[in-house]
Amino acid sequence: MLSRVLHTVRSTEVDFLGHVNNAKYQEYLEWGRFGWVRDAGLTRDRFGHSIAPVVRHVTLDYLHEAQLDDKLVIETALVHIGEHSLHFRQRVVKENGDVAVDGQVVLAMFDMRARAKAKVPEDLAGVFQKLLAPRYGEQTDTKEVPA
Asked: Hey, what CATH class is 2-131 in?
């Protein structure tokens, strides 16, 4: 499943260079993951576990700048389920189709009672399996800016 969240860049998100500050993209991706959870119908009540996903690893490639008032789409897809983790591919795409940021985020399952990593519960693994989009982003033209 591919989830899309729409966003327009606000004045508080740009830095003195006039483009979106790099740290804001992490926030955009978080919004995208929350949108994915909503679109998938996954509520806290549905889980009933003391297990929750926490961010373990983030890799971001900044490819094109986004500026004030740019219209963006935050795309999020679950691409892999590990024994203890969920792997997401996320992109922030500009209105003209340029990919501003291409990212991968790994969420580790965390046992809130034991305060330690945990396995993805079997019942949730089955739900996540139905939501996988393992090939998302493989054939993307990022139109990368030369260094």
From this structure: alpha beta
pTM confidence score: 0.89
Please report, for the chain, the start and end positions of each structural domain, with discontinuous segments joined by +.
2-131
Residues 43, 10: Cα–Cα separation, whole Å: 29
Terminal alpha carbon distance of the chain: 33
User: Residue 44 and residue 50: Cα distance in Å, rounded?
Assistant: 10
Structure tokens at 130: 């139905």
Tell me how far apart the alpha carbons of residues 86 and 56 are, in angstroms, rounded to a whole number: 10
Maximum Cα–Cα distance across the chain: 48
Tokens (6 digits) for 87 = 């792997």
Query: One digit per residue, pLDDT tens: the chain, 147 residues?
Result: 999 999 999 999 999 999 999 999 999 999 999 999 999 988 776 666 788 899 999 999 999 999 999 999 999 999 999 999 999 999 999 999 999 999 999 999 999 999 999 999 898 899 999 999 978 866 444 444 333
Given a contact cutoff of 8 angstroms between Cβ atoms, the answer to whether 71 and 5 are in contact is no
